[in-house]
Amino acid sequence: QVQLVESGGGLVQAGGSLRLSCAASGRTFSNYAMGWFRQAPGKEREFVAAVSWSGAGTVYADSVKGRFTISRDNAKNMVYLQMNSLKPEDTAAYYCAASSTLTVRVRLYYDWGQGTQVTVSS
Length: 122
Fold this sequence. Notes:
single chain, mainly beta, six-stranded mixed sheet, 10 strands, globular
């Protein structure tokens, strides 16, 4: 099991930026692909971005492509989500999770963190 703790959320105006961090501990972090997801009130959890175990491969949801960047530092057991040009519709709780494969499928991720809230005001 990988323990995950997200941080970096907050309140930001539309057009602003935030950088989310996910700290991992437990099993060998570099064995896993890592993903970021978000969930707004009353909506299902949705895929945002994912990065392969090496960091060489990334995949993004169309809604964030060109605005968000996922990265990882295996030496520090960290995953990051740089969010630029934020929009009110990006408002949600953001979660990181681990997977054995680079995928957009929420059900293939496990060891979820507790989430960090991002609120974008118009």
